[in-house]
């Protein structure tokens, strides 16, 4: 270890040994879903694996055997059988389970481990009273909605769009749409008209389900003017259906009750494995949102695998995870039904009336799997909440976290609050695969600040700029083998050129995800941020998450954003640090010096910021991701309207301070 403060590069030549927070217990693993799967492999396939790395190696190399085992283990109901697991394994364009026909919705409504009178959906809202649907209620409402959509002329391949909160009607309409072989797309009701139009105009829906308004905390939001604009800009929409939700009526709209008026038959149109199930949209923070097409079979198999073997979801479990209908987490939440689990829907302000609201819901519903954003967990830590002291959370077995990196301090807070019997499962994936790429499971250890490793069936690794695998160094997160939930394409991209350019241009035949990651020899890893926002000063590369961990542990700093403006002539450029100060503190030269000293000691002299600037708020997407690249583009003279829609921001005014900074000659 060097002691020279002027040395170039990181102060440590080797990273410290990570702190082990959780180790699989041999007595409890056999009772988990992954333990049962291992036992099933021994009995039916004569396959035994001594460790998770061994199991993962098999699952990500012998793709035919692994994914065939998923099909059989979860008893996938096919209307016609597949002729092979992989007809073509090239990327892009891998052909999964050719010949097979099935339907995602059939698996979500069909019961195997729960009773018809057990709860399927529990919904909490700040707009209306709590709602519950039993499994028989759910099946009946899906059948009615299917019949109602058919009366509106919806059939296979048509698009049904929703501009709805996270309510049971959205789940019912999604499953009814899927049952017909039609294609679903949804936008969060928090989005403004422009964001909705930018997304839905690309897929040309024929039916739009929406509501006149909603409650967000203590504030009522009227959406009728937005809906009028949306209807005007979407000429393909033949029918608007109003879901009853809060006050207000929509002119010339059918009522949800009309869609639900006739019982209908419980039926599911068989479609090929690759038939479009839904279109998910990228955040739209660096251009027009990408319409990512996911398939019936891909989402079905991937979510069965993920929810059971990573999240240990079992029949009768309760799954709670705050999400809007625009986030891939909503699709993952709905897929809890595939495992006969009860899904808990939360609609409204997730922090209203206070941080404890979600913990109170977890107590009331006896939640077994709770999803939480790293930002939420860190806020609970910051406010010194003690959830297990104030609430009975004894049913909880796992806390899943995703959306942004979780600092080691967040890991320790969860361990200290919940003890060794609750698994903290931090994952990283995305809308692009609608699942996790890197994640934990009951079979994997957890180290503070690190994701446990690649998910089963996912050949994830890190590449350097030459396309060579790197371990112990930062590299591009890539996937070297196909997985079923990779998109079947981007909507409207007839020749596949946009899809290819998005994921396969950098490394031919290899999926480049766009994250910057470092794998350890143990297989665990750290995602340090988007690769296009990586800090590269004098050849020393650093992920932004590592930067934030140092800065945001200072008691004076509530939030931060770091941007590197490169020098076109090859110089070091400018490293700019923006900080949101704690209410009791101001940014002065003394604090600037202390921030610089902390970064020099913890990271490298190369990463001492050239300027530290106080701003009132850090811009984030509605899912909590910091907008590093859009801010960088604003500081290099791009207009905000060209790169990001204000509706995609958690706070529409959060870019104002950076527009002012862009005119500061000291930052030129």
From TrEMBL:
Keyword vocabulary terms for this entry: ATP-binding, Ligase, Nucleotide-binding
SUPFAM superfamilies recorded: Acetyl-CoA synthetase-like (SSF56801)
Domain AMP-dependent synthetase/ligase: 116-482
Record region (Disordered): 1-27
UniProt keyword Metal-binding present: no
Family stated for the protein in its record: Belongs to the ATP-dependent AMP-binding enzyme family.
Keyword Ligase recorded: yes
Protein name as catalogued: Acetoacetate--CoA ligase
Residue ranges constituting the Acetyl-coenzyme A synthetase N-terminal domain according to the UniProt record: 52-108
Signal peptide residue numbers: none
Residues annotated as domain AMP-binding enzyme C-terminal: 550-625
UniProt GO MF annotations: acetoacetate-CoA ligase activity
